[in-house]
Amino acid sequence: MKKQIAVLPGDGIGAEVAESAISVLKVVSEKFGHEFEFKKGLIGGCAIDEYGTPLPDETLTICRESDAILLGAVGGPKWDGNPSELRPEKGLLTLRKSLDLFANLRPVTVFESLAEASTLKFEVVNGVDLMIVRELTGGLYFGRPSERIGENKDAVVDTLHYTRKEIERIVQKGFELAQVRRKKLTSVDKANVLESSRMWREVVEEIAPKFPDVEYDHRLVDDAAMQLIRNPKQFDVIVTENLFGDILSDEASMMTGSLGMLPSASLSADGPGLYEPVHGSAPDIAGQGKANPLAMILSSAMMLKYSFNLSEEASAIESAVQNVLNEGYRTQDIADSHSPVISTTEMTEKVKAAL
Ligand code: ATP
Ligand code: MG
């Protein structure tokens, strides 16, 4: 199989972990006989420095022409004081919007050898394997008006806006993902308070009959937040709107012990998907070789699976990661008292060797 992959390393540790993913993918391409061509582009702070914009046209063109996009992370203290149009994060928001990446997939997998490092009890998290599917291009984040109002501007309004079509496509995606996993979908809303949630429930009910083999239920977001901590193993796929998904996925991320373990994918209807670690550019450890590359490496596995349909290759990466962790190798963020701490490149080499 021949594929072009846009690589946008971005800032801080983004650049370090992007290199890790590329080198792991090179091993995959040799082992399985695929041809991956990597095209690099600038995004975020480094693009502001070079081109005066966080998302240069050239980068957007590379992304549009590629089969998938791997992104490191953007941002850093250097650009913190910039006006909003010249902030690194703006580059990422514009990219997501331009490619219509409406479905954000965040798997939370607790590796047994890391379950001790979780903020929750071992018995509660060991074996957790769930996925949060968050709507990414609508809801409270983009609804207008969003402003101070009234004569004295001492009132305020934000708008939770969805069209039926926007809800349909994300719910559909949730069912499709559940169907290829453990066939269980939990739709999360706040239907006792919000009209948007009541329409969300209607849509779930309309789409459900197309997936007779998927068991589904509705949960209120407050209940879901509590259940995620009480008994996370009950969940397979959770589908929810933008803000609820944001909050629940940060909550769920704590089960894995480190931000450095969490991959993500953002998908559109038919264009290239974007794959990136959940963590940011981590300016506090940038350039020191301390970053955990596993979130980025696992994001590249998601790319193989969801954009290229290469499930076997994706599983090979996941198993390699699992083996390396079982052997006791740790970067500093997941270190415990009995394992020596290794660097970003050492961890990457271990994964490649395991592959
Ligand atoms: P953003 O605003 O971009 O989300 P943030 O400040 O919320 O950024 P991160 O940049 O992800 O968060 O960093 C949060 C903390 O987690 C930092 O202390 C950072 O060093 C640590 N961290 C994040 N990613 C990793 C990683 N891959 N390996 C090790 N530590 C990490
Ligand atoms: Mg953050």
Automatic annotation (TrEMBL):
<feature type="site" description="Important for catalysis">
    <location>
        <position position="190"/>
    </location>
</feature>
<dbReference type="InterPro" id="IPR024084">
    <property type="entry name" value="IsoPropMal-DH-like_dom"/>
</dbReference>
<keyword id="KW-0464">Manganese</keyword>
<feature type="binding site">
    <location>
        <position position="106"/>
    </location>
    <ligand>
        <name>substrate</name>
    </ligand>
</feature>
<dbReference type="GO" id="GO:0051287">
    <property type="term" value="F:NAD binding"/>
</dbReference>
<dbReference type="GO" id="GO:0005829">
    <property type="term" value="C:cytosol"/>
</dbReference>
<feature type="binding site">
    <location>
        <position position="222"/>
    </location>
    <ligand>
        <name>Mg(2+)</name>
    </ligand>
</feature>
<protein>
    <recommendedName>
        <fullName>3-isopropylmalate dehydrogenase</fullName>
        <ecNumber>1.1.1.85</ecNumber>
    </recommendedName>
</protein>
<keyword id="KW-0963">Cytoplasm</keyword>
<dbReference type="GO" id="GO:0009098">
    <property type="term" value="P:L-leucine biosynthetic process"/>
</dbReference>
<feature type="binding site">
    <location>
        <position position="250"/>
    </location>
    <ligand>
        <name>Mg(2+)</name>
    </ligand>
</feature>
<dbReference type="InterPro" id="IPR019818">
    <property type="entry name" value="IsoCit/isopropylmalate_DH_CS"/>
</dbReference>
<keyword id="KW-0560">Oxidoreductase</keyword>
<comment type="subunit">
    <text>Homodimer.</text>
</comment>
<keyword id="KW-0432">Leucine biosynthesis</keyword>
<keyword id="KW-0520">NAD</keyword>
<keyword id="KW-0028">Amino-acid biosynthesis</keyword>
<dbReference type="Pfam" id="PF00180">
    <property type="entry name" value="Iso_dh"/>
</dbReference>
<dbReference type="GO" id="GO:0003862">
    <property type="term" value="F:3-isopropylmalate dehydrogenase activity"/>
</dbReference>
<feature type="binding site">
    <location>
        <begin position="76"/>
        <end position="89"/>
    </location>
    <ligand>
        <name>NAD(+)</name>
    </ligand>
</feature>
<comment type="function">
    <text>Catalyzes the oxidation of 3-carboxy-2-hydroxy-4-methylpentanoate (3-isopropylmalate) to 3-carboxy-4-methyl-2-oxopentanoate. The product decarboxylates to 4-methyl-2 oxopentanoate.</text>
</comment>
<comment type="similarity">
    <text>Belongs to the isocitrate and isopropylmalate dehydrogenases family. LeuB type 1 subfamily.</text>
</comment>
<keyword id="KW-0100">Branched-chain amino acid biosynthesis</keyword>
<feature type="binding site">
    <location>
        <position position="246"/>
    </location>
    <ligand>
        <name>Mg(2+)</name>
    </ligand>
</feature>
<feature type="binding site">
    <location>
        <begin position="280"/>
        <end position="292"/>
    </location>
    <ligand>
        <name>NAD(+)</name>
    </ligand>
</feature>
<feature type="site" description="Important for catalysis">
    <location>
        <position position="141"/>
    </location>
</feature>
<feature type="binding site">
    <location>
        <position position="96"/>
    </location>
    <ligand>
        <name>substrate</name>
    </ligand>
</feature>
<comment type="pathway">
    <text>Amino-acid biosynthesis; L-leucine biosynthesis; L-leucine from 3-methyl-2-oxobutanoate: step 3/4.</text>
</comment>
<feature type="binding site">
    <location>
        <position position="222"/>
    </location>
    <ligand>
        <name>substrate</name>
    </ligand>
</feature>
<feature type="binding site">
    <location>
        <position position="134"/>
    </location>
    <ligand>
        <name>substrate</name>
    </ligand>
</feature>
<keyword id="KW-0479">Metal-binding</keyword>
<dbReference type="GO" id="GO:0000287">
    <property type="term" value="F:magnesium ion binding"/>
</dbReference>
<feature type="domain" description="Isopropylmalate dehydrogenase-like">
    <location>
        <begin position="4"/>
        <end position="351"/>
    </location>
</feature>
<keyword id="KW-0460">Magnesium</keyword>
<dbReference type="InterPro" id="IPR004429">
    <property type="entry name" value="Isopropylmalate_DH"/>
</dbReference>
